[in-house]
Amino acid sequence: MIVKLLSGDTPRSPVLTLILLAILVGLAFAPFLFPGVRSVDTAARICIFIVLVASYDLMLGYGGIVSFAHTMFFGMGAYGVALASTHMGRGFEAVALGALSGAVLAAAIALLIGLFSLRVRAIFFAMITLAVASAVAVLVSQLSTLTGGEDGLSFRTPRALTPAFKFGDELFGVRLNGKLLAYYLVFGVSLLLFLFMLRVVNSPFGRVLQAIRENDFRAEAIGYRVVGYRVTVTCLSAFIAALAGALYAIWLRYVGPDTVLSFDIMVDILLMVVIGGMGTMYGAVIGAALLVLAQNYLQELMGLAAGTVEGLPILPELLNADRWLLWLGILFILSIYFFPTGIVGRLRQGR
Amino acid sequence: MSAAPDHTPIMSRAGLADRLGPYLPVLLILAIMLFGLLAIPSMSSWLTLTVSGLAMGMMIFIMASGMTLVFGLMDVINFGHGVFISVGAFVGISILLILGHMTEAPSLALNLAAILAAVMAAMAATAVLGWAFERVIVKPVYGAHLKQILVTMGGLIVVEQLIIVLWGPEEIYILRPEALQGAVTFAGAAVEKYRLLAVGIGAVLFIAMRFTLRRTKIGLIVRAGVENGEMVEALGYRLRLVFVGVFIAGSALAGLGGVMWGLYQEVITAHMGQEIMILIFIVVIIGGLGSVEGCFIGALLVGLLQNYIAFLEPKLALISNIALMVAILMWRPQGMIPVVKAK
């Protein structure tokens, strides 16, 4: 049953299984295990980034396509929910319609870019997505009448998902309110989407993708339409990324260029995929969990470290809490050289 | 025996469209300038915009040329190229700030000397950085595009953060040297002096680069390497050394471009390279990967179009470049002057 749920793609390493189980249990019972606004927020962020990073892995790790527009797709889902909720009033219909239309738009744009650039040469795709994504990000901050510009949009989600909605007293010391429901909505949808992507990569479609990644010329010679497969996976990935964006918008009840469209998120996604492990869906889980936790808690540690070397030249600057990207960047480069399959690949080898 | 007919066979003369084909990209620049002339009501503002468009195009060309050659030679795509721009700008501007007494003096000679010193320092710094970047980051991932993109992106992140460590996270403002501030009036149009200087430097560099590539032995090897690297190696040339040289030269040019761009914007940030990279990618793609001429023409097209559209319809300026790229890729999917065969 479990093997079937995982589409036959088990972790294949005892340590990895343990870590994944820990993450699953931690996320499933996060509001009860780690009460507090900040920790639940971290847990929700991990759920959403797992989906986002896994959808990116679909493209990068399985399709062998580098895209820099993933935040654009993410943002489309988020803005879809925000705009629908603003204009249609609060309600589940608005959320569903916004999420769906954002996802469809994302897939359509992915189709256009894909047909344009993947047809010629795969590296064109990386450059063109970078250009298009930056243009869209600037456009969103310029069209302030529609998108709220730099300030972004605050909107109201359905009442059942807000802290004001109560459906009972406390359970294990946790208040049963709409925020809890919102968390479980995020968690449930993320889990479903993740299992769906696991299904996709282990289907015949996923196998062909892996073949294309390994040797596209040969795959073409065997008779698979490489461009068709690549474009399809790009669209699928964009669609799921937009759904992740919609979840993020529902959770934050706010969208803005900095929170959903900035290039920093793109860098985060890249770090998560590579450090977790490309081409292994579980890498997304580990990468996202590790990096979101690091973002929220490692910075404090670095601040402490910077305090201890106070007075020495340069060193405090290097250990400044804002410089954590520097160390992650170095880790990123090293992991591409030495562990191209990331933490997951490492654990599986060590079996 | 009758004499051969004295008319030339029609076959030997290609049609007008075919003969124009190679020159079309150049004509496109003129077409865009003409479009600007028709669309912009006053002649003087057209002149101002054209000069600033050309200046911007020249600067983009200086920054992009290294990248396109590096790709052509070794099939290496360097997403971290933008970092050389930032480093060049920071080193150069720091030197200018140190030489404050020279830049504030109203003498053109002193000002130019200060800029020259800044440019030299910036180019030296980026050349060294380029060499290190090639050794540490690019060398281990030859032949693997996916890894190249990721690793060079990682290099970009790390060096950008190092800039912040060394210079602090705030943007640095700088005034142009005294003699280069302000504008000259020409035919009723105000043309900024600095832009004229930028156009001059860009044109000189382009001609020098073309001369090197077309007339010297090293240029011959580079061009042959772009066309067919294996053959050049079979003839006994060490293409790797040539490549390292081109990489270093390209990095130094990006550093020069960084100083010029910094003085043009009068503000520098650690992220500036990353932002300009987007323009550079567009230019390199529409020019045709690996082609210096295509890169030059593409840069001018982007510069001119952006300036015209920003004047006519400011909101459209952001997507005008993307639209240009789409149009050109529909017309020639490999870019205007395709050099490297699809690998």
What structural keywords apply?
heterodimer, A: 351 residues, mainly alpha, two-stranded antiparallel ribbon, 75% helix, globular, B: 343 residues, ABC transporter involved in vitamin B12 uptake, BtuC, two-stranded antiparallel sheet
Largest sheet of chain B: 2 strands, antiparallel
Could you give a short account of the major beta sheet of chain A?
2 strands, antiparallel
Backbone shape of chain B = globular
* Total domain count of chain A: 1
- Can you count the beta strands of chain A? 4
**Mind telling me the C-alpha Rg of chain B?**
22 Å
Number of separate helices of chain A: 18
**Percentage of residues in strands of chain A:** under 5%
SSE ordering of chain A: HHHHHHHHEEEHHHHEHHHHHH
Number of helices of chain B: 14
What are the segments of chain B in which pLDDT stays under 50 over at least 5 consecutive residues?
A: none
What structural class do helix, strand and pairing data of chain A support? Answer: mainly alpha
Q: What CATH architecture label of chain B applies?
A: Orthogonal Bundle
Oligomer: heterodimer
Secondary-structure-derived class of chain B: mainly alpha
Mean pLDDT of chain B: 85
Q: List the helices and strands of chain B in order.
A: HHHHHHHEEEHHHHEHHH
CATH-defined topology of chain B? ABC transporter involved in vitamin B12 uptake, BtuC
General description of the model:
The complex is a heterodimer of chains A (351) and B (343). Helices cover 75% and strands 4% of the residues of chain A. Chain A has one domain (2-349). Chain A has 351 residues and is mainly alpha-helical. The model of chain A has no long low-confidence stretch (mean pLDDT 85). Chain B has 343 residues and is mainly alpha-helical. Chain B has one domain: ABC transporter involved in vitamin B12 uptake, BtuC, CATH 1.10.3470. Chain B contains 14 helices and four strands. Chain B has helices at 16-20, 24-39, 43-74, 81-98, 100-104, 108-138, 145-167, 193-215, 217-227, 229-234, 239-265, 272-287, 292-312, 317-331; strands spanning 172-173, 183-186, 189-192, 267-268. Chain B has a two-stranded antiparallel ribbon. A two-stranded antiparallel sheet of chain B has the order 2-3. In chain B, helix 3 (43-74) crosses helix 9 (217-227), helix 4 (81-98) runs parallel beside helix 7 and helix 13 (292-312) crosses helix 14. The longest helix of chain B has 32 residues, at 43-74. Chain B is globular and about 85 Å long. The chains are: A mainly alpha (351), B mainly alpha (343). Chains A and B meet through helix 7, helix 14 and helix 17 of A and helix 7, helix 12 and helix 14 of B.
